Amino acid sequence: MTRILPSGLDPQAFDAALQSFAGIVGHDALLTSADAMKEYGDPYAFAGDDAFVPSAVLLPASVEQVRAILAIANRHAVSLWTVSQGRNLGYGGGAPRVRGSVIVSLRRMNRVLEVNDECAYAVVEPGVTFIDLYEHLQAGGHKLVASVPDLGWGSVVGNALEYGRGYTPYGDHAASHCGLEVVLPDGDVLRTGMGGVSRGDSWHVYPRGFGPSLDGLFMQSNFGIVTKMGVWLMPTPECYLSGSVCVAKESDLEPLIDVVRRLLLDRVIENYPVLANTLSVAGCFSPRDRWYGGDGPVPESVVEDIRRELGIGRWNMRFALYGSEAVVDAQFAAVTAALSRIPEVRIDGRKYPGDSPAGEILPMDWSQIGIPSLDMLAAVKWRGANGGHMGFSPVCPLIGRNVRRQCDLLAPIMNQHGFDYMGGIIVTPRCTLQIFEFIYDAADEGQFREARAGCKALLTAAAAAGYGEYRSHLEHMDDVARTYDFNGCATMRFNSLIKDALDPNGILAPGKQGIWPRRMRLQAGTTGR
Ligand code: ADP
């Protein structure tokens, strides 16, 4: 087998760099085994596909070690790729954009540094998972709820930096962070916002500071390595209601969206609801062949049979309410009254004391009250036990007719590539983030390649219709970046300027979000100066 090396390095130069890295992190924290490369590769890549495979993994234990790693990488021109947990499933997992990059995994920097009960926030290192933070809050008796995404094993920091989402009112994780500590590519250390005041105590309570707000520069970027983050938490409510709404017809989606928009804008509903179509719900707990054994997408008549058998809607929405019991009751009455305008709508609500232990809450109601789990891993087994998925994630205004237009444009393209349209829509007060999931059997090369081709086809069609993506798999980062084309790709010219200023040797995460350092730009054929 040929050895995978960082781009531009020969084996001797790489060995010299590894020697230096080992001197910093220790031999135990320098991984080069095939198993480790697999662990940090894309878990949903077909076995022989090595497009996004690392050459080594470093596990620093401190900010000082991160700084030293950057110094060595600069000296030896080694491309690095940062992960916190490396569980960015559906978008590449822990894998680097450039084959052979050395992974800097921050899994060992896993301390919850502070929990502030009065101002309701925590400060975490990147290796802290959602499960860790939940357990820490429980063990300490803190009456605070951390928002969690679908899978609890991801990093609180990594998820926020990648614009991940959860389902409490704090579920816009990028917006619910407050204050970052960042190591820049030259090893300098910066604290954003009020963290710039070294003797202050307001770093995690006011997100800005004095002058330009810098936090956004370190999210979905390759401008620094984040080593600490403040995260806002929700005080445990007296009462939590998990609500569900089912509508019977496909055409009910538009009125449902328009009614929900007003409920969100009025803050009657304050969390982030999720919409799922019939197949998406069925896929959460059953394989496709339980319903249909044929080739091509599940036919319409079968979808209707599934809907009836499961007693669900063509579209199903979950939402949550929080507060005193009287407030929750009043909000639920308002939600019910507003939605009752849709014929045959079914609305249910389950109420719990806000501090109920996990064992007293139905698992399907966990995520909206911040209880982490790994249950959603089952949802990718739709087409076989080796389930894999690749997400295409465009943004759309939260207006019924716009969402309809997006679905009508993109769902048939998925079908043409042989994939079922399993609609999953994150709802925010003004936009939807729809995840068009290509679910495939990762052991089947044909399905794997078709998922990539289908994703590219969606991207092309969506871009022509003016839809941009908010998150993408490594494979499509350049393509997505190019869709941000206003004024001759002014966004990328700006990103390239910053990249060259901060990282002149181009060592940190080259290619992330389509941002390439100067030395690789021509080679990659991307825009920039
Ligand atoms: P999670 O395990 O929560 O899914 P990852 O660790 O996979 O998150 O991170 C997602 C992406 O965010 C990574 O691929 C990387 O590009 C970026 N990233 C993660 N952690 C950091 C960090 N500490 N500093 C800078 N970028 C990061």
**CATH homologous superfamily title of the largest domain:** FAD-linked oxidases, C-terminal domain
End-to-end distance, in Å?
38 Å
DSSP, total strands: 19
User: What is the radius of gyration computed over CA atoms, rounded to a whole number of angstroms?
Assistant: 23 Å
Approximate strand percentage: 15-25%
Largest sheet: 8 strands, antiparallel
CATH class of the largest domain: Alpha Beta
- Multimerization state: single chain
| Count of helical stretches | 14
Please tell me what the overall shape is: globular
Taking pLDDT < 50 over at least 5 consecutive residues as the criterion, the unreliable ranges are: none
Please state the average pLDDT score: 95
Helix proportion = 25-40%
CATH fold description of the largest domain? Vanillyl-alcohol Oxidase, Chain A, domain 3
Which compounds are bound in this model?
Answer: adenosine-5'-diphosphate
List the domain count as a whole number.
Answer: 4
